[in-house]
Specification:
about 90 residues; mainly alpha; 3 helices; flat
């Protein structure tokens, strides 16, 4: 069982601000979540789930591309054969 002191400590570690008035409800919710995990831990499965694996990715295909001149023709600004972009700080 998780105490209010535990929740306060976890909140400090996670850098989450919790007021003293919120500690009670958070502690109750935290314990309820842990109870659900306890229920899931007790569930017995009949067998391991197996799934066939499929590669859904397509193979790379080499296709003709735009020439450098065509690309630069569409660029708003260019410099020494490259697209000039605004400075990002």
């Amino acid at each position: 069982m998780v105490t209010e002191k535990d929740v306060h400590h976890i909140a400090e570690l996670a850098d989450v601000g919790i007021s003293p008035g919120e500690l009670g409800p958070f502690t109750h919710q935290f314990n309820a979540i842990l109870e659900y995990f306890d229920i899931l831990d007790r569930v017995q499965g009949d067998a391991a789930v197996t799934r066939d694996l499929y590669n859904i990715m397509r193979e790379d295909e080499v296709e003709p591309s735009l020439s450098q001149e065509e690309v630069l023709r569409n660029a708003p600004a260019q410099e020494e054969g490259f697209i000039r972009a605004p400075r990002v700080m």
